[in-house]
Amino acid sequence: IDKETDVLASTTEIVVNNRKRRLRIIISIFLGLFCVIIIAVPTTITLVRKIDTITVSTSSTTSVVVITSTTPSDGLQLFKKKNEMVYAIWNTTAGYTSTPSLPGGNIGEYWGTEPPEAAVDGNLHTEYTNHGVCDASPYYSEECGLRTGFYLTFQSKPFILVNFQMATNKGALERNPSKITIEGSNSKGVDLVLGKSWTLIYNGSSGLELILEARTFGKIQTLLNNTLSFASYRFLITSKRGAATSVSYSEVKMMGRFPDE
To answer: Which terminal CB of the chain, N or C, has fewer other CB atoms within 10 Å?
Structure first.
């Protein structure tokens, strides 16, 4: 009887030990999967967010913010300035001939250290500032900087502009554009100065009206039903946030596609 009892006890102990071993294995597997999920999910979210973010490169003397996103959503391409010329203009409205703007602090001039190239250089720490009908004196008006802007011709073949996104300046909210016009052209050379060379494709919000932060991108604006492709584009400011000595903005991103895509 004692031998039978020992055998039964031993058998029971083996069964219990096997169950404990299986339970430990199951718990280990569960904990392993849980750790993988904890690590992987934030990493995935971080990677997704980094697709359309900015990278800060800091040296001993300067801090530069550069746009790193090159492939916008919806299969659109981000068209960025390479070595194209950017022409500053003032006293210009959609459909009319461009008036060149020069660097300086007088009427019709842009601030020398804040040229039109800064609006399309992919750097949020640079900006384009134009006085328009005003000058650099401390005269604050809602008219200062209006009807100013720029135009440029991309080296790529003509493309269809679908979206654009502007960014605020370094701190003067009143200088930020609130409404703009966009025109396109396939003319070349000096013909780009002529108003008849340009076709109006957008007249509306800049996307910056509700942005209170400096050097910050506003809402992406869409050119509804635009199917026209152009090699050159002209941006003009038609209104701004408030009374100031000029109009100023740090970036204009242009997103579109080629006609055959």
So the answer is: N
